[in-house]
Structures are given as C-alpha cells and as structure tokens.
Amino acid sequence: MLARHPFLRELAITTLIGIGVYAVCALIVVIAEKRERRDFSVYRRRSALNDLAYVVFYKCSIYSILVMPLFAFLSPRVQFLRSDLLQRLPWLASVLLAWLAFDFLNYWIHRLQHSSRLLWAFHSVHHATTELTFLTSHRSHFLEQLATGLLLLVPALVLGIPQTLWFPILFLQLLSETFQHARLSWNFGPLHALIVSPTFHSMHHSADEKHYNSNYGRVFSIWDLLFGTFIAAKEPVERVGVDGMEIPERLTAQFAHPFRFLASR
Fold first, then answer.
1. In this predicted structure, what is the pLDDT of residue 216?
2. d(Cα 187, Cα 98) in Å, to the nearest integer?
3. What's the whole-model pTM score?
C-alpha cells in the first residue's frame, strides 16, 4: 500500500524518524534524571499522562495530517518569497545561520505570547502545569502550534532552507527543548548566558510573580541577555505554574481553556 501511495510512504518514514529522534532525546534525559536520583513516580501522575498524549498527537503525525491541507494550500501561493539565501553557503554555516534566525524569531514570538492577551490565552495551557517534566515540552495548544508554524513559514521561504538542513536543525531544537523541561539541576556553568539550560527555563515557568516575563529564549539565552529579560538561575525553582489559573488535567478542558479565558472578564 505504501509503495502505491508515495505520500503515505513519505509520511510513514518521517513519522518513524521523528519518533526515533524523540526516543533518543527522551532516553538521554531519563538516564540523566536517574543519575540525579529524581523521583520517577511523577511520570505515573495524570499531568504526565496528559503530556504523553500531546507527544503522541504531535510526534505520531496526527497534527501533521490535520494541518497539511492548509500548508499545501498556502505553500505554492507564497513561493514568490523564496530567495534561497542559505543555499549559497557552506553546510555548517547554513545550519548555524538558520538556527540563529529561527531562534531569534522564536524569542520574539514567545515574548508576544506572554504580552498579548489573545496569544497568552493559548500559551497559558503550557504554563498552567504545576509538574514540569521533559514531556511538558509538547504541552502546546493545537491553535498555538498552528499559528507558530504559519509565522515561521515566511522566514523559512525567505532564507530558502534546504531540505537537507531540516533534520539537524529540528534534532538540535528537539534535544534542547526536551532537556530544558527536564527535572535536572544543570545550569551549563559559563555557558548559562548563551544556551538555555534546565535551571534557566525552570525560572521561566516559575509561579513566583517576580520571575514573570523573563527567560524567553528557546535555545539561546543570549537573546534574553541582549534584550533585558535575563534572570540567572543556579538551581531549579521550587514551584512552577500560574497562581490563580487552574486548568483541569483533562485534554478537553485544556483545549477549551483559551476560549473560556477570552470570554471571561
């Protein structure tokens, strides 16, 4: 069947690669947490099981199948933006420039998600969790994920990122986001102000109001240092979540939360 339908074969291959990459990242994190003697009972709780459902939704291409018609419709209509800037550069330089460009844009998108009431309504689903684990990196509302993908489509075309670069960029991105949500006491020492660490990102999830609006970096913390949102963190924070915002640990409740939030006073 896959041989007769190239689209299904490509989808199956990319899905298996995505699951394999995520499995490698998860295994590294679990080994690291085991070495730090972390309590693994957290992964049997409802919040972690909900986060696992998000992982399945995004990593098993359920999300991709749902949004693919929209991107298939838009892609040929914005091809005039393609400039293929990166294709003229050496491979390593292309990876670094593409990664920096996307991370810079992600930093500002992330800041906007916290400053705009509309965007915060959806992004707060990610922040409302009171138990941070590496699985939490995928707790993202469907419409937030779609909006971010649409925003990044334009720079991807302008830069003309070759298909061969997508895998290393996505692997590094996934590895970083998985590690920064893990229950690890790593702060990366002298690299703390350059690369996002688990302690740095836990500060971003802190339930303490004095830590709000800080540490927005996705992969590189240098953007926070440059734009005045950097807070150093030597240890993970004690409490995460958003005080006063309680979302039931049900997928239906988390999907409906942004609409309830926007409808409220």
1. 97
2. 25
3. 0.91
